[in-house]
Amino acid sequence: MADRPRGRGRGQGPLRGRGGQSRDANRQNEHRDVPWKLLLGFRRLQELKDKEPYEVTLTLSKRKHAFKEALSEATHENNIVALFLRCIAKASECETLRESMIEIFVILENSLFFKSSHPAYIFSAMTEASHDRQMHYKQPFRDILTIVRDFRLKMPQSIVTVMGLNAILDTTFNSLRNNSSEVVDDEMWESYLEYKEAQEESLKRMATKKTKTRQEVDNEEDPPDDFRELTIFPGKVDVEINAEPFIRRNKKTGGYENTDHYLDVQFRLLREDFIGPLRDGIKEYIEAVHATGKAKRLQELRIYTDVQIISPVCNNSGLCRRISFHCKGMDRIRWESSKRLIYGSLVCLSSDNFQTLLFATVADRDLKNIQKGLVDVKFETDNRTIANIPEDSVCYGRNNCLLRSL
User: What is the pTM (predicted TM-score) of this model?
Assistant: First the structure.
């Protein structure tokens, strides 16, 4: 399943400063002329790497000018490279502050650190003759895998950027593995192979989407059915792996034939916006389970396991069901600010690898309950089996209102 912090204290609004500037903006301006080594030097990074992911992300974001300046240098000492990798990997684990994390990844993607220092550091592991010195690369290599994996998930449009780095990783990991190095142990090797496979699948999906886009440009056929007869809530046919929904692009030139033509295009596009990621995620999950016998981290969905419908409850949404669930690293999630399982999120329950499906929406998300792995959902069919749940990454509740209007 999938999810997102709000609220603003007195005097902390976005335009509280003199002249319309925010306090955060003022602080960032204060840091502009401070050398990066004073803000993110060795001692600062040593302290930062042991903090919570939320704090690391917030610090790098607030000191983004120093962070950008540091990463703009082509060469760094190995210990500084390792510390930056540790901090970036820690930040990427943050469940909240998504915009700040994307900002950090954008700075990283365009930096000389990413194109020079980082690859040079990876290669240097093969030249270390000392076993003890070589073992110093173990944690940084774990961090590198975390970074490139999350880079693929959070910035799929930049997947080609890491292809050169992937080649360097492949050469280094294979060399260390063939030389019986303990740096790349079985667990790390398996993680690397999973990442490599996921990267290849992402490239294939990108190629497929480009092909479909070219086909959609010329799709001026009449719709196969009346869009008013389509359900807003998805059905099993909508998320089947080989489903090919009828959609037409928005017109950039020329006009629509009539009002129905315009509404049909908008309705189908908006409906596909939240059903498409669910379909792609289920396909990715099924392929991973068939290939390796276990699920992996998905791009479009979050999967929750050991799901059970435990009791009926009544709330403002009417008759609902309380379900219990589990997810990896659940005790580390900051549920009070996380966007996981927010009100209106679309979820899909299945007990047989999505051969049969039950769709529902999150109806109530009490903080004390969700910290215990309990959440209330609303759906029509009663069921008490153990299931897995994927949560759509696109907010169903917001789209639902627009679709009803159309």
Answer: 0.57
